[in-house]
Amino acid sequence: MNSENKFILLKILQEIEFNLKNSNIDFEGLIEMIINKRIFITGAGRTGLIMKSFGIRLMQLGFDVFFIGDTNTPSTSIHDLLIIGSNSGETTSISAVARKSKKIGINIILFTSNEVSTIAKYAKKIISVGAKTKELEEDSSNKSFQPMSNLFEQNLIIILDTLTILLMEKMGIKQDELHSRHANLE
Question: Which entry of 15, 28, 135, 153 is annotated as an active-site residue?
Fold first, then answer.
């Protein structure tokens, strides 16, 4: 690896480390909201793909999980939980889902960089991922040099993977149990 490539790689890692070290995430509160719930997940674009991967992790932990928009998504009830990933908190389609979920009475967890967004006003719990982009905050001290919402997505997957491990510990689930729920028609 040449020195320029290594410099960029290390700068990305420094951004992730800075953001995560300065985050204050209530993992215990998240676990309480998630345990014993049927879970619906949504996000758009690349963030949506990260949220889908989190849904797979939850399914492997034994949760009933559905990604909004998939054809096998059932109707929801007040007893369910909606988990949203949205950097801006302003994605129109996701905002509509949040508004409708709030009307039904579903608790919402939002992972975002914009705690005062449209979607945030519907959320019961807001997790600040803390990765600002030019579009969100021009004068931010933790604005990323990376394009678009890369830093948000990197932080989000690490936070969700941390949550997965903490759920495993809380529920007493071992690796073998995860493998027993892994797709086997590949």
Answer: 153
How many Cα atoms occupy the beta-carbon half-sphere of 55 within 13 Å?
A: 24
- The predicted-structure confidence for 80-128, as pLDDT tens digits, reads as follows 999 999 999 999 999 999 999 999 999 999 999 999 999 999 999 999 9
Q: How far apart are the C-alpha atoms of 100 and 134, rounded to whole Å?
A: 30
3-state secondary structure of 5: helix
Distance CA 125, CA 123 (A): 5
Residue 168, SS3? helix
Entry pTM: 0.91
Catalytic: 153? yes
* 158/165 Cα distance (integer angstroms): 11
